[in-house]
């Protein structure tokens, strides 16, 4: 759950209603030991409980790493405090060689940086999110054990490939040991590996962009900087703008790997009467544009959606890889034609909003109006006003305390007319 939340915070999410699928989730307990082949993936994020790796799991991870090539590296990230402590000894059961050669680590006495646990103490980024500090903390679940992270040393011998670096270290003053290594980060010709000796769930979110989200962001940055593409297309811009009854849709990529094509999709947003929710039509395909395929330079794309009726439209971009995998961007809204004779909506101030913002609704005449906040999936997450508004300008408060960080749309509906503006919540 912590991994999924962190991926969502980074913009990777699954929403079957759209449908959008940014990643696959594998519950290993639901499969037979030899039933899963991870080699079909480029990148694998692994969460583990407080047990040793099974022999099947070790074999699967070895096979995943071995499947990497110079042209397509494999990326592996593991967050678990147990492997280096549980796998000591060169027997078939203990298999310390797995920890040495795959995770590039060995257990360091006394096996943990402080006793009885590491709750409330910090780690410091080295090869991952350099110089950032994360707090290691108990979870809120009753009966869940306190964090006892692993203390380790880097491992190298004549059979290990690549360069192994310290991923994180335990902060001096919080640890009671001389040794300090909390994780390893390894880059080789065919794979990148990050092993952090702390369970994902024990990274506390102490502010905006901290905790598991920042650890994950730093890990992905390490993969990308060392030639391990996590997503086939690095999108740097996607937008749409009305021009008369036409809409210009444009986007740009910073890099592409094995990208096949882009599909531009559109849906119409139908305004409801005051007190009613807006509705949307089904997504329809507007155009298909061939991708560059493989590129490390910026590429700009664009299409024109012509001869549209007046109204509010949403656009999204579907990016398709050569292996058939795909992912969607978030939506952008475009108003075709003018509806400002009934109601206008000013931009949210400040934007982004951290705790409290305000938006101004200007009415041509007094009328029932509904002003709502809609998230990226189209759900109404807040109602700012529902009832009569007087003629002229009215300022409404937008409170962000109950909203997650992300991009939202503020929508005003008056007698079947709808106007909107975008707002970013950043905590």
Structural account:
By secondary structure, the chain is mainly beta. It is 10% helix and 40% strand. It is built from 5 helices and 28 strands. The chain has helices at residues 2-9, 55-66, 83-86, 96-101, 212-225, and strands at 14-15, 20-21, 43-47, 74-79, 105-107, 121-125, 133-136, 152-154, 163-166, 168-170, 183-187, 191-196, 233-243, 246-256, 259-270, 279-280, 284-290, 299-305, 311-321, 326-328, 332-336, 343-345, 356-363, 367-374, 380-389, 392-399, 406-414, 417-425. The strands form 8 sheets. Strands 15, 16, 17, 19, 20 and 21 form a 6-stranded antiparallel β-sheet that branches. Strands 3-4-12-11-9 form a 5-stranded mixed β-sheet, sandwiched between helices. A 4-stranded antiparallel β-sheet has the order 25-24-27-28, with no helix packed on it. It starts with a helix and ends with a strand.
Major sheet summary line: 6 strands, antiparallel
The share of residues in extended strands comes to: 35-45%
Structural class: mainly beta
Helicity level: 10-25%
Annotation field: number of helices: 5
Number of strands: 28
Low-confidence stretches: 272-276
Shape: globular
Mean pLDDT: 88
C-alpha Rg, in Å?
A: 25 Å
Distance between the termini: 20 Å
What's the helix and strand layout?
Layout: H1 2-9, E1 14-15, E2 20-21, E3 43-47, H2 55-66, E4 74-79, H3 83-86, H4 96-101, E5 105-107, E6 121-125, E7 133-136, E8 152-154, E9 163-166, E10 168-170, E11 183-187, E12 191-196, H5 212-225, E13 233-243, E14 246-256, E15 259-270, E16 279-280, E17 284-290, E18 299-305, E19 311-321, E20 326-328, E21 332-336, E22 343-345, E23 356-363, E24 367-374, E25 380-389, E26 392-399, E27 406-414, E28 417-425
Parallel strand pairs: 3-4, 4-12
Antiparallel strand pairs: 1-2, 5-8, 6-7, 6-10, 9-11, 11-12, 13-14, 14-18, 15-16, 15-17, 15-19, 19-20, 19-21, 22-23, 23-26, 24-25, 24-27, 27-28
């Amino acid at each position: 759950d912590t991994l999924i939340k962190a991926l969502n915070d980074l913009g990777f999410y699954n929403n079957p209603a759209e449908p959008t699928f940014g990643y696959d989730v594998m519950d290993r307990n639901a499969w037979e030991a030899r039933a899963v082949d991870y080699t079909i993936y480029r990148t694998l994020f692994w969460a583990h409980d407080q047990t040793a790796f099974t022999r099947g799991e070790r074999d699967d991870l070895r096979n995943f790493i071995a499947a990497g090539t110079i042209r397509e590296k494999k990326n592996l990230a593991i967050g678990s405090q147990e492997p280096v402590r549980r796998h000591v000894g060169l027997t078939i059961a203990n298999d310390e060689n797995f920890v040495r050669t795959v995770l590039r680590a060995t257990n360091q006495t006394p096996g943990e940086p402080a006793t009885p646990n590491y709750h409330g103490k910090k780690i410091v980024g080295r090869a991952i999110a350099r110089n950032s500090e994360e707090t290691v903390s108990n979870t809120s679940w009753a009966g869940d054990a306190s964090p006892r992270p692993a203390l380790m040393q880097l491992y190298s011998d004549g059979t290990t490939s690549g360069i192994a670096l310290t991923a994180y270290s335990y902060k001096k003053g919080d640890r009671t040991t001389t040794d300090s290594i909390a994780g390893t980060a390894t880059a080789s010709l065919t794979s990148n590996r990050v092993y952090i000796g702390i369970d994902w769930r024990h990274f506390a979110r102490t502010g905006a962009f901290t905790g598991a989200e920042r650890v994950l962001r730093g890990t992905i940055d390490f993969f990308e900087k060392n030639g391990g593409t996590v997503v086939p297309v690095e999108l740097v811009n996607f937008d749409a703008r009305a021009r008369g009854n036409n809409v210009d849709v444009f986007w740009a990529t910073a890099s592409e790997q094995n990208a096949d094509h882009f599909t531009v999709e559109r849906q119409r947003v139908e305004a409801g009467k005051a007190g009613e929710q807006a509705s949307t039509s089904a997504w329809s395909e507007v155009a298909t544009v061939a991708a560059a395929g493989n590129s490390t330079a910026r590429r700009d794309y664009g299409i024109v959606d012509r001869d549209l009726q007046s109204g509010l439209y949403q656009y999204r971009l579907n990016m398709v890889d050569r292996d058939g995998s795909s992912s969607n961007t978030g939506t952008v809204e475009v108003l075709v034609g003018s509806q400002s004779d009934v109601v206008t909506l000013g931009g949210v101030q400040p934007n982004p909003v951290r705790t409290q913002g305000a938006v101004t609704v200007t009415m041509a005449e007094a009328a029932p109006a509904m002003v709502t906040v809609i998230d990226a999936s189209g759900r109404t997450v807040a109602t700012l006003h529902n009832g009569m508004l007087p003629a002229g300008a009215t300022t409404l408060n937008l409170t962000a305390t109950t909203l997650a960080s992300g991009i939202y749309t503020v929508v005003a509906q008056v007698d079947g007319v709808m106007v909107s503006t975008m707002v970013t919540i950043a905590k």
